[in-house]
Design a protein that fits this description.
With about 800 residues, the protein is α+β, with helices and mostly antiparallel strands. The chain has four domains: about 15-250, Immunoglobulin-like; about 255-585, TIM Barrel (Alpha-Beta Barrel); about 590-655, Immunoglobulin-like; about 685-800, Immunoglobulin-like. The structure holds alpha-D-glucopyranose (GLC). Belongs to the glycosyl hydrolase 31 family.
């Protein structure tokens, strides 16, 4: 606990050592193999177009002898971009077809323009202080808005904030002062009067983004390594996010069961308790796909073991759970108990796979098992070894792993590994100080790849606490130790939205809150919102009040059941969005701004969110509240529960008794839905209902995706992608259904297309060459057309 000594005046040292060195004049330029080197009087700039829209800029001071080639996370395209270089009296110009970088000779500052000559960014000269920490300032204005930066506290718009990137285990309440949490994703989106760009600082040491301290600039800095950034142009935030994820990778399709509702607690203490929880879900008919095993499942916290007394027969338990449609996901931390009789520790020591100091001493730190060693995941051999150890779990029938404490968290003063540990980094050694933020991601990579090798074609699932840019390739992210505070329910929305804008589409908080004690009301409200988050897990802390959906009596239980069931019904819609995320990198949970970029009311709106582009949720975020203002952007919206038609472009006061989370569907929405299942492992229905919210005017479309949800067969083409394209005019609706890809045989066999709010009375419904039935409920304005899917493309014409 801190007291006032924390703000003692003697502690007010100079915040930053004087930045006394810069690159000086840009003097000469050499260009070869798509790389331009600008030799400056006191260092070097390397400029490279990675794509037409992405420029990599690396700055090195004259004294920097480090061979820096990047953190290793960037996926470089195979083909070099044709970059043109030009010298003028005052500047060098390097350009692609989309961007132009002007490097000013006088001070090596850079200005970046788009192809129309519109200024996108102005970068002041790179500077270094006496500690060799590099910093760079970019111009901003009072209209600048900032997004992404991964998992941060605060609101959606990061203007006026400062954050650090240093993976940290923060158990204290997550509050706005906390500049660094578990994930470090040094990627920023800058939006200014319709102009947008992204900035990815590829540096896994400690870095900072300061949008607070300077009126006309924001500052990006790194304590170690080279200043190496990727400037990402694009015409919209969507474009920039898509390019950024092209650079750092996109999520792979997870097993569909990992999109179901997940139940956790620190800890379900033994086999009986786990089975009781599982059976209770089934008895109460609350859908559930996963139960987590927290640290008590292990034998004295030794990873890759089960406690023989608490869990005498894990294989049988896992089998019985599978029969109930429930998967087990056990926790695996990186700390390996120092115990010479423990196989994993012995192997790690004998094969030199743990993190060591330069002098050869293995780093030992205290975590749950007491003194522990930590695998060096930057080393391929250690990663493979670790991954293969997961055979222990896969042989028991486990396909999902929960990576925790992988910042890494250590119970010492620095809260992490000693900074002078030297990671092997496959032959390019880096100190822990330089590589800290990579550790957690490399653990999840090793885990994902190890599971993949051992699952005979089944898809692995990994969820992690720590990560770096690119973590989405290997794991879902949960946002760590939040608390059962209403404020943390509210905070979880911008946090997950910004994670989504940072490439991490599969994310969510501990629903109900981890530590402190939830209440029935808070659990109900959090489950309502959380049921639409991509990662949906209820987790709570040792000794906190129980928070399973039934813990607070029948009313709260029924609310939880309703919203979890809603998630399961919407799964075809959500899974299609997950597919989209895997292809384009766009988030599943979206800030309204992403879909309505021209509406200034949305720059910082984050007490509402969109699921995809058409479903808008406005959760209740305060106790004892049964009304709230909801801002509906331009267009027509429908209340999901009552069907009421609402005009957008303004606020509405919405009634939200405890059982209701305000939920709206945008006109033009196409929402595929499935019959309710208790588990996504159960066979899916051959029938799909597609709700189409008619608009009477606009054209709209949706890609419905399906595959077996379980294996990697989709990578061989075994999937279906059905494009649904709707064209409307005042007395006609035409729906074109077109399988863009159709190689998955067990897909849906029958579609019920429900056209809602049809603005006219249909006199003719036609589907060429396809037997069909239809029914029109005139009072409700709902036309239902039923037909089989034995087509490649079909057109439904409805004429009024
Ligand atoms: C950490 C995790 C938490 C977990 C606990 C015990 O605090 O963040 O989710 O329950 O460790 O493993």
């Amino acid at each position: 606990m801190e007291n006032s000594a924390t703000i003692h005046p003697d502690k007010q040292t100079q915040a930053q050592a004087v930045e006394s060195r810069s690159l000086g004049r840009a003097e000469r330029i050499t260009a070869a193999n798509g790389l331009t080197i600008v030799n400056c009087s006191a260092g070097q700039l390397m400029v490279q177009f990675i794509t037409e829209q992405i420029i990599r800029v690396t700055a090195k001071s004259a004294s920097d002898t480090h061979a820096w080639s990047g953190s290793g996370v960037v996926l470089f395209p195979e083909n070099a971009v044709d970059q043109q270089v030009e010298e003028r009296e005052d500047e060098f110009i390097i350009h692609s077809s989309a961007l132009q970088a002007f490097i000013h000779k006088s001070d090596s500052s850079i200005a970046i323009y788009d192809d129309k000559g519109h200024l996108l960014a102005r970068q002041e000269p790179v500077v270094w202080n006496v500690h060799k920490e590099a910093a760079v300032h970019f111009e901003k204005s009072s209209d600048s808005h900032f997004y992404a930066l991964g998992e941060k506290t605060g609101f959606l718009d990061k203007a006026g904030e400062r954050y650090e990137m240093w993976n940290s285990d923060v158990f204290s309440p997550h509050v706005p002062d906390i500049e660094a949490l578990y994930q470090s994703i040094p990627f920023l989106i800058h939006l200014n009067e319709g102009t947008v760009y992204g900035l990815f600082l590829d540096n896994p040491g400690k870095t900072a983004f300061d949008m607070r301290s300077y009126p006309n600039h924001y500052r990006v800095s790194c304590e170690t390594g080279s200043l190496d950034y990727y400037f990402i142009g694009g015409s919209s935030i969507k474009d920039v996010v898509s390019s950024y994820t092209g650079l750092t990778g996109r999520m792979q399709l997870p097993p569909v069961w990992s999109l179901g509702y997940q139940q956790s607690r620190y800890s379900y203490m033994n086999q009986e308790e786990v089975m009781t929880i599982a059976r209770t879900f089934r008895e109460k008919q609350i859908p559930c796909d996963v139960i987590y095993l927290d640290i008590h499942y292990m034998d004295e916290y030794r990873v890759f073991t089960f406690d023989p007394l608490r869990f005498p027969n894990p294989k049988q338990m896992i089998q019985e759970l599978k029969e109930l449609g429930i998967r087990i996901v056990p926790i695996v931390d990186p700390g390996v108990k120092k115990d010479p009789t423990y196989q994993v520790y012995r192997q790690g020591i004998e094969q030199g796979l743990f993190c060591e100091k330069l002098e050869g001493e293995v780093f030992i730190g205290k975590v749950w098992p007491g003194d522990s060693a930590f695998p060096d995941f930057t080393d391929q051999e250690a990663g493979t070894w670790w991954g293969d150890l997961h055979r222990y779990y896969t042989e028991l029938g486990i396909a999902g792993i929960w990576n925790d404490m992988n910042e890494p968290s250590v119970f010492n003063d620095s809260k992490t590994m000693d900074l002078d540990v030297v990671h092997s980094n496959n032959g390019s050694p880096m100190t822990h100080k330089e590589a800290h933020n990579l550790y957690g991601m490399m653990m999840s990579k090793a885990t994902y790849e190890g599971l993949e090798r051992n699952l005979n074609g089944e898809r692995p699932f990994v969820v992690t606490r720590a990560g770096y840019a690119g973590i989405q390739r290997y794991a879902a992210v949960w946002t760590g130790d939040n608390r059962s505070y209403w404020e943390h329910l509210a905070l979880s929305i911008p946090m997950v939205l910004n994670l989504g804008l940072s490439g991490v589409a599969f994310a969510g908080p501990d629903i109900g809150g981890f530590t402190h004690h939830t209440s029935g009301e808070l659990l109900a409200r959090w489950t309502q919102a959380g049921s639409l988050f991509p990662f949906c897990r209820n987790h709570s802390m040792l000794d906190s009040i129980r928070q399973e959906p039934w813990a607070f009596g029948a009313e709260i239980e029924e609310i939880c059941r309703t919203y979890i069931a809603l998630r399961y019904r919407l799964m075809p819609y959500m899974y299609s969005l997950i597919y989209e995320a895997s292809r384009s990198g766009l988030p599943v949970l979206r800030p309204l701004l992403l879909e309505f970029p021209d509406d200034p009311k949305l720059f910082n709106l984050c007490d509402q969110f969109l699921l995809g582009s058409h479903i808008l949720a406005a959760p209740i975020l305060r106790p004892s509240t049964d009304h709230r203002a909801v801002y509906l952007p331009e267009g027509t919206w429908y209340d999901y529960w009552t069907g009421e038609r609402l005009e957008g472009g303004k606020h509405h006061l919405c009634h939200a008794p405890l059982s209701v989370m305000p939920l709206f569907i945008r006109e033009g929405a196409i929402v595929p839905q499935a019959p309710l299942r208790q588990s996504l492992s159960e066979a899916s229905s051959p029938e799909l209902t597609i709700d189409m919210y008619c608009s009477g005017r606009a054209d709209h479309q949706f890609d419905y995706y399906e595959d077996d949800g379980r294996t990697a067969q989709y990578k061989q083409g075994s999937y279906n992608l059905l494009n649904i394209q709707v064209n409307e005019s005042p007395n006609q609706v035409s729906v074109q259904l077109n399988y863009r890809h159709k190689e998955f045989e067990n897909g849906i066999q029958f579609i019920h297309l429900r056209m809602l709010y049809v603005p006219f009375v249909p006199v003719s419904v036609r589907i060429e060459d396809n037997p069909h039935s239809f029914d029109f409920n005139e009072q409700a304005g709902v036309l239902t057309v039923g037909f089989k899917t034995g087509f490649h493309s079909a057109v439904i014409q409805v004429i009024g």
